[in-house]
Amino acid sequence: MTADYLQQVTLGAIEQQPTIQLVAADPTWPAQFAVEQRKIKQALGATALRIEHVGSTSIADLSAKPIIDILLLVPDAADEAVYVPQLTKAGYILRIREPDWHHHRMFRGTTRPLHIHVFSEGCSEAQQMLHFRDWLRHDTADRQWYRATKAELAAKEWPTMQAYADAKGPVVTAIKAHATTYFDHYNG
């Protein structure tokens, strides 16, 4: 993601992140997610079609940045009027608006470090996020590869957290391909 693009899609200042702090897996992460899941469901009701714990904190023995990643599926992520005011009132802050990339929206938490990634129901990127999570829960070799990649990259300095995420891109893409092959075969 280029710096210009990041500036275009970010609401407010881009947060500088010269170092990435990875911590050992925390057994309270699922409970932290569950608290936020209930809060989101209460705020959105039936508009929240699916709320999933994703990212490294959703994988039991994987080190991670201590930020809970949440996948939220709504009927139409482009229709902000049906979820942005409610999530804002519940204490979340809209930080990213990517209308040209799956209508992705990203909120940050105000009471704990978290990211809510909003996509439309049926979005292929959302399904890939779930496959990635489920594959890393299942496959030890790819989980170890991802762990080593994250540790190597976290030891470097980055201008933004997005730059760190982008650097993981080739490994994430390869693991997503493994996951897609597995789940396509398993479900086919």
From TrEMBL:
It comes from Lactiplantibacillus fabifermentans DSM 21115. It comes from the Bacteria. Coiled coil: none annotated. This is GrpB family protein. It holds the Pfam family GrpB. PANTHER family: GRPB DOMAIN PROTEIN (AFU_ORTHOLOGUE AFUA_1G01530), GRPB FAMILY PROTEIN.
